[in-house]
């Protein structure tokens, strides 16, 4: 093992910023009351909860603070959005895409087991959803369309505003509107999130993706949207997330998004240049590679690369021994022997998909980090390829 460490798995999780940690610390020991308690200790905590909700609503341009529900993670936010809207509606049809995170796909598959119809929309080779197919799948029973804002494996940014306009036209003639949900877990803190501009009814966020704490997320629910709770046991978070609020985590996710929004343009420009430098270096130094990320229409942080004639897990282990952390795709899918559903959806062959790595960059990466990766990676790829019976190098 080398002493040099390079972390290129920021789409899986990020480290907590010092400023965020400092913002959280008072709520572990000093202001520790239960926000539901009527005494002064509880009301101190309640004040932090209310101010965080107000601040968070402003950061995503929500119209009202009560449109923000704090959750435990993006996955919970996704479940509340999709299952909650189905429970609240007489309709039994959900539309999503083939490249969604498993937080969406597994939720939809479970709904199918319970009698709900789900349509999975295809994409083009870049991962962009087929808009015409989506329009043709909408029926009188359609409850909700859920399309992620940006994909967690290849980084493609989906046309959420266009989908919103389509649904607005359709909803003019419907008694019950088709809702629009987007999983913005990979875009919050990387793109400016404006729920009014996006035109969504529901939007999911997770704090640990943008240098906030793990174990806290947020869900935007446009006022008037009907959602049934998945859990019961308390009035907390407008009845949708029962249980004592994680005040420290809520303060942390709010501070993290505030910092990210303030620095958005400069940080993402820097990350984009590093990502492109890595991409150009890989293409110039290593033969037989495929860049799966549409560089012109993706979040700046993600680079998906398929290396022919290799098994991705082997390369990941060798990179780890060299002090470099990357991913074979989504961290939530690690351990699966199946090819990536995202790469399959965009037309990658199973062999190519098995040799794919995701490098995801963040604010703490430097040019020296990328130089080190480009120094180490070509030799490791060649070493793994020599183990392949089909490699003719």
CATH class assignment of the largest domain: Alpha Beta
The fraction of residues assigned to DSSP E strands is 5-15%
In the residues, how many domains can be counted? 2
What is the number of E strands?
12
How widely separated are the two ends?
A: 28 Å
Uncertain runs with pLDDT below 50, 5 residues or more? none
* Largest sheet composition: 7 strands, mixed
**Structural class, judged by helices and strands?**
alpha/beta
Using the 3D structure, state the CATH architecture of the largest domain: 3-Layer(aba) Sandwich
Mean pLDDT: 95
CATH superfamily of the largest domain: Type I PLP-dependent aspartate aminotransferase-like (Major domain)
What Rg is obtained from the alpha carbons, in whole angstroms?
A: 22 Å
Helix content: 40-55%
């Amino acid at each position: 093992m080398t002493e040099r460490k390079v972390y290129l798995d920021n789409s899986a999780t990020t480290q907590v910023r010092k400023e965020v940690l400092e913002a959280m610390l008072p709520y572990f020991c000093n202001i520790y009351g239960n926000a539901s308690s009527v005494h002064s200790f509880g009301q101190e905590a309640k004040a932090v909860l209310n101010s965080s909700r107000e601040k968070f609503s402003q950061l995503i341009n929500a119209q009202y603070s009560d449109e923000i529900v704090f959750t435990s993670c993006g996955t919970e936010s996704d479940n509340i959005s999709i299952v909650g809207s189905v429970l609240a509606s007489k309709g039994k049809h959900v539309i999503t895409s083939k490249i969604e995170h498993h937080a969406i796909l597994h939720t939809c598959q479970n709904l199918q087991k319970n009698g709900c119809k789900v349509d999975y929309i295809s994409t083009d080779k870049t991962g962009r959803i087929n808009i015409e197919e989506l329009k043709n799948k909408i029926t009188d029973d359609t409850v909700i369309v859920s399309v992620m804002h940006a994909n967690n494996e290849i980084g493609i940014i989906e046309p959420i505003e266009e989908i919103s306009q389509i649904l607005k036209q359709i909803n003019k003639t419907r008694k019950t509107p088709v809702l629009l949900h987007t999983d913005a877990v990979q875009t919050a803190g990387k793109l400016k999130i404006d729920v009014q501009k996006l035109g969504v009814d529901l939007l999911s966020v997770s704090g640990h993706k943008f240098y906030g704490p793990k174990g806290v997320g947020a869900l935007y629910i446009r006022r008037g949207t009907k959602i049934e709770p998945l859990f019961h046991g308390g009035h907390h978070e407008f009845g949708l997330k029962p249980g004592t609020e994680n005040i420290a985590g809520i303060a942390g996710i709010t501070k993290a998004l505030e910092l990210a929004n303030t620095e958005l343009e400069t940080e993402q420009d820097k990350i984009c240049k590093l990502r492109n430098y890595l991409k150009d270096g890989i293409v110039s130094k290593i033969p037989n590679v495929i860049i799966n990320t549409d560089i012109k229409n993706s979040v700046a942080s993600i680079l998906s690369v398929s290396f022919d004639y290799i098994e991705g897990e082997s390369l990941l282990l060798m990179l780890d021994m060299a002090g470099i952390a990357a991913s074979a795709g989504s961290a939530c899918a690690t351990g699966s022997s199946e090819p990536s559903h995202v790469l399959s959806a965009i037309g990658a062959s199973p062999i190519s998909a098995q040799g794919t790595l995701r490098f995801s960059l963040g604010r703490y990466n430097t040019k020296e980090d990328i130089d080190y990766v480009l120094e180490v990676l070509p030799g490791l790829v060649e070493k793994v390829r020599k183990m392949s019976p089909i490699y003719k190098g």
